[in-house]
Amino acid sequence: MTLRVLYPGRIVNRHVGGNTTYTRKIRDGVTARGLATGTIPSGPHPLLTAAAENAYSLRGLRNTVLHFSADTGPLVRPRTPSVVTVHGVASRWTKVARTESQEKVWRARVGSAIRNTDRLITVSHSSADDISEVFGVSRELVHVIPHGIDADAYARPAGLSAALARYETRPFALFLGNLEPRKNIVELIRAFGRPAVRATGLELVVIGRPAWNFEEIVREIDASPWVTHLGFVEESDKIAMMQRCTAFLFPSHYEGFGFPVLEAMAAGAPVICSERGSLAEVAGPALRLSDLDADSMADRIAGYLADPAALESCRADGAAWVRRFSWERSVDQHIDVYRELVK
Q1: Each residue of 65-93: pLDDT tens digit?
Q2: CATH no. for residue 111?
Q3: Same domain, 117 and 163
Q4: In this predicted model, what pLDDT tens digit does every residue of 247-257 receive, in sequence order?
Q5: DSSP for residue 206
Q6: Domain that holds residue 167
Q7: Is 332 contained in some domain?
Q8: Measuring CA to CA, which residue among 228, 224, 282 is closest to residue 250?
Q9: Which of 60, 207, 321, 335 has its CA 20 to 30 A from that of 187?
């Protein structure tokens, strides 16, 4: 009988960012290797989704693995073999990720998922260290399986849609990611308003949907004429914008992995990013921001933009660096975990 792996409908059926990219890539790779896949039911509201997922996990499905791929999962132990992926613990290093009440709920949900599933996966060694420390899990029990990157898809020349055709000739710097405090977008916008960066003439383009606690970010965007917020864009425009930007900026306070940094490198963009969380190990040849306040970032960004050799070196080295991250390898390692549970 073919092994079947089910993924959360709340993640695969709508795009919520990196968790969706990850889950769909693993699901598609698993399907391509001949395993059956499907979804864990969800509901129209988070509480109803939690109830639906828990009820489904108690069905005792044969030859099936439930993979809760986005931090949270069952509140009681499933009767079906199960796996949870926890992507990181931002609050170990920064207080801006969530409000205090949001953090309490998140930790309770994640702690429950870790206790009630059979295997625990994370996506970087720094995230494994954080999970071990915060949730009291033996480090040896955390399976580290890095994400992959479709390097060829990002390197292949992409055309801009008519709506964004102006960026064929207009110089700009690019940020891409969910609008949430952890991404440090407010300080980035303020850094671009400092005289040293304004002197470059670059527009700051922000691509991404409002996620949570985003109100201050939106106010800062609205008050900053040097910033354009494009919201969500199609994948082809995303790649095309990465290929055309003068630099890709990612000053995040914490990342469990950091998809956009590697995607931008694959597209040929010079990347300027923080070195927090997994970025210290994942971002490779990126140009680094050691301090993340507006003034410090403005000085460092202006210096990098005035150094064509540094930008070109980052561009060239980044294209080789991303080849280390393979979805093929990631899928194989996930299947190894699934098969451990269903023999």
Answers
A1: 999 999 999 999 999 999 999 999 988 88
A2: 3.40.50.2000
A3: no
A4: 999 999 999 99
A5: E
A6: 151-324
A7: no
A8: 282
A9: 321
